[in-house]
Amino acid sequence: HTDGIPGNGAATRFLYDENGLTKLASLGAQSMGDVATLTDFLRFGKEQYPADHRVFVFWDHGGGSAVGVCADERTGNMLRLNDIQTALTNVYGSAPDAPPFEMIGFDACLMASYETAAAIEDYARYMVASEEVEPHTGWSYDGWVGALAKNPAMGGAGLGEAICDSFLAACEEEDVAEQATLSVIDIKKLPAL
């Protein structure tokens, strides 16, 4: 439903920068709930856009550790936690020397669980997710992407705080703040938990 993005069901890669959206490739029909699609996208990002700090956001419906995330409405597939871990391992190896992502986020319901954090433990310093059903507003991308643009060296903790603060502000504007839950989890604290 965004100008410049075709609604023809084909997966398309875009780059968004100061020039707006630039189409990079059309990939044809892909299932967003398939581990191969996620692996391919992670590999593409790693190879084409090297960076000192990386962030990855899963966006779509979530059903927690029992169901997964990123329901593909066409195929009915969803990414299970094992799929996410498999894709990360396929691209970054098992137990990389340092987590490749400053933050992995889930703009999806019910994903802030111990199981989700454990699935990404070797791959992210921080996780941002909601332990409950997110209000229909979802994350406020204008708010946190704007904060990141002002401070590109921002760490995962600061970025997580910007995501949570802008999310709550947007929920207050939409009068759904009483439904808002979102947390920033320091993954290195997981073993103690």
Q: Key features?
A:
193 residues; alpha/beta; 6 helices; 6 strands
Explain what you see.
The structure is a single chain. This protein has 193 residues and is of the alpha/beta class. Helix content is 33%, strand content 20%. It is built from six helices and six strands; from the N terminus they run ββαβααβαβααβ. The chain has helices at residues 35-48, 64-67, 81-92, 114-119, 141-150, 156-173, and strands at residues 11-17, 20-28, 55-59, 101-107, 124-129, 183-186. The strands form two sheets. The chain has a four-stranded mixed sheet with strand order 3-4-5-6, covered by helices on one side. The chain has a two-stranded antiparallel ribbon with strand order 1-2. Helix 1 packs parallel to helix 3 (81-92) and helix 5 packs antiparallel against helix 6 (156-173). The longest helix is centred in the C-terminal third of the chain and has 18 residues, at 156-173. It is globular. The mean pLDDT is 93.
